[in-house]
Amino acid sequence: MGRQQHVRWASLKVAAMLYAGVTAVTLLPSTAAADDALVIARDIDINSLDPARGFCDTCQIYFSNVYETLVGLGKDNATLTPRLAASWEANADQSQFTFNLDPGAKFSDGSPVEAKDVKWTFERLKNIKGGAAFLMDPVTSVEAKDAQTVVVTLSGPNSEFLNIVSAPYAGIINSDVAAASGATAAADAETTDKAEAWFLANSAGSGPYVLANYKPDDELRFKANPEYKRTKVAISDIVIKHTKDAVTQAQLLESGNADIAMQIDPDTAKTLNTENLNVETIPSYNFLYVALAPGAKTAPKLSKEIRQAIGYALDYDGIIEFTVGGQGTKTPAPIPNGFPGTSGLPEPKQDLEKAKELLAKAGVPDGFEIDSEFPNMNSYGVDLSLLSQKIQQDLSKVGIKVNLTPVEFSVWRDHVRGDGIPLTVSFYAPDYYGSAQYVQFFGMMEGTPWFNRAGGKNDPSIANPATAELLKKALASAGEEQEKAYHELALGMIEDRIIIPVVSPNLVLASSKKVTGLRYSACCNLLMDELALQ
Q1: Are 45 and 122 in contact (CB under 8 A)?
Q2: Could you tell me if 382 and 284 are in contact, meaning their C-beta atoms sit under 8 angstroms apart?
Q3: What is the pLDDT of residues 248-267, one digit of tens each?
């Protein structure tokens, strides 16, 4: 990027920030002063600290470090490793899994992790019906054979189930402690569970850290769990400081007021004084996307032709240059590049003439007006206000006028559930290595989060009848057959044009040189027990 372009980019970021226009409860008093804690700067996008309800990137970090899973993901981001389960085995068709728990594993209160806790956790995750409940959709029963043995039976073959239980939302909860505070795993848990407020001030896991303090829109503080023995925790106190934008995160890092900055974009990274900093830019599995809701009350209705026209109108190369200074890649389908089924997918390209042709065919040759509400935040180094303005500019070239409304993430999260946002932008990071999660989250079939958000109840016609059958086939197969099934699923999601990925930003790992062990985890984002200070 030339100097003139760089100045323009910096000015646009400032303009975007200008455009965008609970009482804390302490669980554990910190024995260290604030200045003694390792400080991480990032936009805290938490919707809940309850593992059955939370679903966000910061939630992912929190759960990964406080609630240990049965299975982990190795440093290669693909190999499964033992955690609470010392070993496991599956039946011939992978419809039943037996987990043998580590007899030495303990929760933070010193009590043993037992099979009853696994059963309770999985059943509660399924029955609360929160954002990550889809992970438990395949589960028909969980049986505690004895204190150390759990048998999970699924509705059918599922080659990704071991990957699923490595997801941070499947972290095991101390059932006795949580139940005493109003939590339940009963079938009616969605309405009878009363523990969400308790989880905002308390944790009940077996991970390397416990919750020390949470102040919404301010900080999330961790303290080392003295009962954790799996690895040696080198840093006793860690705090995530709420820092909305990449520029401010960079300033905190350079000034020494933060030790790690998690959402610096590649362009801002180029401006950092690296004398005392480590800065590495690597590809990621994260992506940002445009989402459309045909079930929203719009005129005209967002038919498939109009949705496809919007897809052709977007300048994908320009978006990557505009948002991350060219430091990113195109993602053809809402499945990350490199995941099963993504090889050989057609690369998205702008085609304004094709977009105009489709609009004319849909009866709106002169375009139309559409409202776009989006979260005012930075995600993976991308300012969503800046991204939205670029999308607004692109769509104007085919006569589509986009009215932008930036809102706080919590407001957007509530609104998007009601299928009332015709056009929005959002982001997604993997919860484990595997493609099924993307079909189960983005696919147009009954019950998926984006089928509901896109207005499936108002417009059942958006369902893609091939999706469920292809997913079943993918989960029951392996090798080339599985790859082909996921490939067909990806092509179907491209055709549906409900979810249109626009950029997979390269990830910037930025930290003080005194920090070691910082890496990107495809399941957990950031594993704090691997961090140390030198």
Answers
A1: no
A2: no
A3: 999 999 999 999 999 998 88
